[in-house]
Inverse folding.
C-alpha cells in the first residue's frame, strides 16, 4: 500500500511563504500548495511546478530548486475548500495587515472541511510578526463564521511561530529576470509553540517546538525586530542604503547592540534564561545583519513606522517591556526618536506619521498613539525621546 503524501496549504506565496515555510516542508516531502491573491504568481507557480531559492551569506552561496509545488487563486473558493479539506497542516504567511482579508475564505474552507470525511485535527502555523498572532487569527475567523466555535476549540490548532529568517524584497530588475526566485539567508530554524498543536507535531528537524512560547515571541519582536528596525532608522539618518552598510558603522552597531542587550537583560530577568545564551543570540543576529549578499535595504526594513511605533510592537513595546523589568531603556529611546525621522519616498505610513506629528505635536503622538504616558516614569522616558528627537533633527539637517 502506497504511503499517503502529506500536504501543507500555505496562505501567502510571498517571501516567507515561498522563501521559508515552503522550503522547509517541501524538503520534508510534503506537497506544497500556495494560496495567493496574485494571478501572475499563481499561474507562474502552476506552470513551472517549482521555484528557485538563492541562499546567500558571506561564507558562500547555494542555489536550491523547491518543488513540486502548485498554487490556487484565493478567489477560487471551491479549490481552496478542497485543498484545506485534504490538508495535513496549514500556514499563514501573508503579513499581519492582510490577515483580516483572508479570514473569510479560511473560515469558508474550514466549514467545508468540517462537513467532509476528514475529521483529523488541522494545525495552522501562524507565521506573522505579531504577539498573540494565533489568538488574533482565531478571533478573525470566528468573526467571519461564529458557527465554527466548536471546531476551532476542538480540532484546529493555532500554532504561533517566531520567524527569524531574513528575506529581503528582490529588486525590480531581479523580479523581471527571475519572477519566482527568492533570495534569502541560510538560517532556517523555526521555533513554534508546542502547546498550540491539536495534532502531532511534524517531525521536521528545522521545526523547534517550545513551551511556554511567549519567551520566543518576545525575543523575536523585542531583540531581532527591534534591532533590525533600529539599524534601519539610524542608517537612514546618515544616508545608508542597506542594513549591511549601516551595521558596519561602529557607532550604529554599538547603539543597536546596547539596545538589544537591554532587552536581553529584561528577558533574562523574567524567564531565567542565562545572559550568555541571549548574548550569543544577539551576536549571531548582528553577524547576520552584516550579510552584504542579502542586499536588504533600510527602506524595506524601516517601512511602515506607524505599525512599528505602536504600543505593542517592536520599538515602544520593547521600551515598555524593559521598564517593566526594572531596566532603563536609553538606547531603545534613541531608536524611537530615530523612527520619527524616517521619511523615505513612497512610504505612506511614514507620510501619515509625519502629518500626525505636524498636526498634533510629537509629545501628543507619543502619549496618545505610542501609549508612553500614565506614570512619572513613562513621562520621564517620553521627555527623553523628545530630547533625542531634537538632537537627531539637528544631525539629520546637517546631513542634507
Amino acid at each position: 500500500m502506497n504511503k499517503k503524501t502529506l500536504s501543507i496549504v500555505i496562505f501567502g506565496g510571498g517571501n516567507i511563504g515561498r522563501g521559508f515555510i515552503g522550503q522547509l516542508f517541501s524538503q520534508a516531502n510534503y506537497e506544497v500548495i500556495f494560496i495567493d491573491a496574485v494571478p501572475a504568481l499563481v499561474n507562474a507557480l502552476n506552470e513551472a511546478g517549482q521555484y528557485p531559492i538563492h541562499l546567500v551569506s558571506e561564507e558562500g552561496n547555494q542555489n536550491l530548486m523547491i518543488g513540486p509545488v502548485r498554487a490556487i487563486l484565493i478567489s477560487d473558493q471551491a479549490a481552496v475548500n478542497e485543498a484545506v479539506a485534504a490538508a495535513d497542516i496549514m500556514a499563514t504567511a501573508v503579513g499581519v495587515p492582510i490577515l483580516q482579508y483572508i479570514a473569510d475564505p479560511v473560515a469558508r474552507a474550514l466549514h467545508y472541511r468540517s462537513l467532509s470525511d476528514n475529521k483529523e485535527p488541522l494545525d495552522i502555523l501562524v507565521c506573522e510578526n505579531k504577539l498573540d498572532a494565533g489568538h488574533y487569527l482565531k478571533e478573525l475567523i470566528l468573526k467571519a463564521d461564529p458557527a465554527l466555535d466548536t471546531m476551532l476549540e476542538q480540532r484546529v490548532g493555532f500554532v504561533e511561530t517566531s520567524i527569524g529568517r531574513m528575506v529581503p524584497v528582490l529588486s525590480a530588475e531581479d523580479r523581471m529576470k527571475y519572477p519566482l526566485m527568492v533570495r534569502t539567508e541560510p538560517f532556517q530554524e523555526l521555533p513554534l509553540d508546542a502547546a498550540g498543536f491539536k495534532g502531532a507535531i511534524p517531525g521536521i528537524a528545522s521545526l523547534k517546538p517550545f513551551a511556554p512560547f511567549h519567551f520566543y515571541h518576545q525575543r523575536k519582536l523585542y531583540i531581532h525586530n527591534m534591532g533590525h528596525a533600529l539599524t534601519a532608522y539610524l542608517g537612514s539618518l546618515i544616508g545608508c542604503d542597506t542594513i549591511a552598510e549601516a551595521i558596519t558603522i561602529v557607532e550604529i552597531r554599538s547603539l543597536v547592540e546596547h539596545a538589544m542587550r537591554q532587552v536581553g537583560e529584561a528577558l533574562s530577568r523574567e524567564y531565567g534564561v542565562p545572559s550568555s545564551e541571549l548574548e550569543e543570540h544577539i551576536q549571531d543576529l548582528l553577524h547576520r545583519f552584516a550579510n552584504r549578499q542579502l542586499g536588504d535595504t533600510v527602506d524595506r526594513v524601516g517601512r511602515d513606522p506607524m505599525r512599528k511605533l505602536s504600543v505593542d510592537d517592536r520599538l515602544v513595546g520593547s521600551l515598555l517591556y524593559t521598564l517593566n523589568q526594572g531596566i532603563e531603556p536609553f538606547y531603545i529611546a534613541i531608536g524611537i526618536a530615530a523612527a520619527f525621522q524616517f521619511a523615505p519616498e513612497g512610504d505612506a505610513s511614514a507620510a501619515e506619521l509625519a502629518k500626525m506629528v505636524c498636526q498634533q505635536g510629537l509629545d501628543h503622538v507619543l502619549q496618545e498613539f505610542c501609549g508612553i504616558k500614565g506614570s512619572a516614569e513613562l513621562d520621564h522616558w517620553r521627555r527623553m525621546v523628545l530630547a533625542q528627537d531634537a538632537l537627531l533633527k539637528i544631525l539629520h539637517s546637517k546631513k542634507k
